Amino acid sequence: MDLLKQKILSEGRALSAQVLLVDCFLNHQVDVKLMKAVGEEFARLFANDGITRVATIESSGIAPAAMTALTMDLPMVILKKSVSSILKDGIIQTEVFSFTKNAPYLLTLKSQFVEKGDNVLLIDDFLANGEAAFGGIRLLEQAGARVGGVGAVIAKAFQPGMEKLRTAGYRVEALAAVSRMGEGFIEFED
Ligand code: 5GP
Fold first, then answer.
1. Does any ligand 1 atom lie closer than 6 A to the CB of residue 14?
2. Domains of the chain (ranges plus CATH)?
């Protein structure tokens, strides 16, 4: 998606060869017009996959997932990273190792928000090692749904997540796949 790649090149910054900072349009400040275009692109890519629900992981997946769900006219559910005292009935959880926090957390879903037989499109901001995506898949499948697709706004193709998901049989689409980055440069796969 050229618009997204241009934005990454003009406003993103490689903090290292592993970590890309895009907090000016995706992770902190949000460019909602770009997110609308992102949602339309995911909707186009997964238009023929029989998707019945969009899921995401809080918090940075919410904007692109909401725009995707809106465009596809589908319900959306957020997988939570923290549990509060009001979120305790009917929940299922799985442990996920956080790439950015370098620590595990419990990904949580109130199973009533997914229907058995749902075909879910799981959207997230980044795909790196695939921990978050595989955690989301475990929860959604435990709730009786199947995952018909995984959409990453940005995938770091030099990390193993995308390949692992594809090897496990999931369809993965990344709107920008970074092949290499470092101080002052960011390169994309074709
Ligand atoms: P994974 O679970 O695939 O290793 O990492 C995906 C999650 O870690 C995403 O939900 C995202 O929030 C975060 N993440 C991974 N890599 C990056 C990165 O380079 N930059 C930012 N901002 N977040 C990342």
1. no
2. 32-83+90-179 (3.40.50.2020)
